[in-house]
Amino acid sequence: MLEVTDVSAAACCAPLVREPLTAGEAEQLATSMKALADPTRLRLLSIVAASENAEACVCDLIEPVGLSQPTVSHHLKVLMTAGFLERSKRGTWAYYKLVPGALDRISQLLVAS
Amino acid sequence: MLEVTDVSAAACCAPLVREPLTAGEAEQLATSMKALADPTRLRLLSIVAASENAEACVCDLIEPVGLSQPTVSHHLKVLMTAGFLERSKRGTWAYYKLVPGALDRISQLLVAS
Known about the structure:
The structure is a homodimer.
Chain A: H1 23-36, H2 39-50, E1 55-57, H3 62-65, H4 69-81, E2 85-90, E3 93-98, H5 102-110
C-alpha cells in the first residue's frame, strides 16, 4: 500500500535547485511525487482539473480511464490523501475537486529558473 | 528495475490542468515522476543542481546522502536515464550536471495557473 501524506508541509521550501533539500524535505516531496507517479492518477487528476470549476463526478471518471469503479476510487483516494483532490458528496455521487495550490506547490519546488 | 525514459518527449504538452492528458502523455509523465519520486534521488538532484554550475563530482555526493557508492551510482543512473542529469568523466571522477530545462518541463506540466 502506498503511503501518502498531505503535501502542504512540502510547500515550505525553496526550489530544489536553489539549495539542497534536507532529508525530511526530500521524504515529503517524494511522497507527493509517488502519488503523482502513476499514469492513471495523472489522467484522473488531469480530467478533474480540466473540468468546469476543476470538479468532476466520479461517475464521469470511470469511462475515460477504462478501469473498474473500485480501481478508480482507490486512485482517487491516493490523490485525496496526498492533498491533491478533495471530495464532496451530493445525492448519490461523489464529486472530486482539485485542491487549489497543491499542484502549483510541487511545480514551484521543481522550477529551475 | 525501474523503467525510465527520456523526459523530452513529455515536454510537448499543455499543463495537465488545461486539458486532459492522453494515455500516452500520462505514461511518459508518470515515468519521469517515478524517477523523481524517491527521497535519495531528489536529494542527489538537489545537491547537483544547487552546486556551482549545476555540476557535482560523484565524490562529493556520497557523504551527504550517507549511502554506499554503488547505491548512489544506481540512483544517479536512474536520473540520467530519465534525462535529468548528464555525466562526464574527468580524470578519475565522474561529474554529474543538471540537464538544462528538464526539471522546468515537468514543473510546467504541473503548473495550475
